[in-house]
Design brief:
It contains 9 helices and 9 strands. The protein is α/β, with parallel strands linked by helices and 241 residues long. Helix 1 links the parallel strand 1 and strand 2. The longest helix is centred in the last third of the chain and has 14 residues.
Length: 241
């Protein structure tokens, strides 16, 4: 199971984690190194707001150990501004930057806005513009995307449908559409702010174990360091060193 499952958090640079996870005397510049001693993957949210310089990706590559994987969240310019239309150029910029992570690049996450409705004539051309040499994940936040037509399109392009727990704020659905699975755990009771219970973690462990395929799992309930605590516990449940 350990070779098939990567468990980490959504981001690592949280000030509130000092003293909870990061020792007080470690400078912020040392946090990534400390994080990699506990987890072998991380999901980057900063790329959603602004695409970093290529040198930043080079730095992330150099500062993380062999076998570490980065999941990169695509720019909101693609998903929220362009709304999946005419995205060839911004996608190329994303690929050119994220590609500098080389073998340490795990996936590219496309998080859609809550008010974006599924339109077949827009989504199919968008998927056709995606570079199949990269792994892609789609996180939807509008009920119209829970549709067999969507799942068929995703399967044809090996794009994973994100299993996203958002405390009931957005639609939840489980569908396997790729040769890997991607899970985002934002909190089951309160978005970004609730701790997962032992029973909930055991249930997620059961689901992941039963899937028996490459899985990426990221905890986004960063409040009070719950993400760290829950990620560590899920690793224990799945017997991941």
């Amino acid at each position: 199971m350990s070779s098939k499952c990567k468990i980490g958090t959504s981001g690592w640079n949280y000030k509130q984690w000092r003293g909870i996870f990061y020792p007080p005397k470690i400078p912020v510049s040392g946090w990534l190194d400390f994080y990699t001693r506990h987890f072998d993957t991380v999901e980057v949210n900063a790329t959603f707001y602004r695409l970093p310089k290529p040198e930043t990706f080079d730095n992330w590559y150099e500062k993380t150990p062999r076998g570490f994987l980065w999941s990169v969240k695509a720019s909101k310019y693609i998903t929220h501004t362009k709304r999946l239309q005419d995205c060839r150029e911004p996608l190329e910029r994303l690929y050119n930057a994220a590609g500098r992570l080389k073998e340490k690049l795990g996936t590219i996450l496309l998080q859609l806005p809550p008010n974006l409705v599924f339109e077949r004539e827009i989504f199919i051309p968008f998927c056709e513009n995606l570079d199949p040499s990269f792994q892609h994940v789609l996180e939807v936040r509008h009920q119209s995307w829970i549709d067999p037509c969507v799942f068929k399109i995703l399967s044809e392009h090996n794009i994973a449908f994100c299993l996203s727990d958002t405390a009931g704020k957005y639609p939840y659905h489980e569908e396997i559409t790729a040769d890997f699975v991607y899970v985002r755990l934002h909190g089951s009771q309160k978005l970004y702010a609730s701790e997962y219970s032992e029973d909930e973690l055991q249930e997620w462990g059961r689901k992941i174990r039963n899937l028996n395929m490459q899985a990426y799992v990221y905890f986004d309930n960063d409040f009070k360091g719950f993400a760290i605590k829950n990620a560590k516990r899920l690793k224990e449940i799945l017997a991941i060193p």
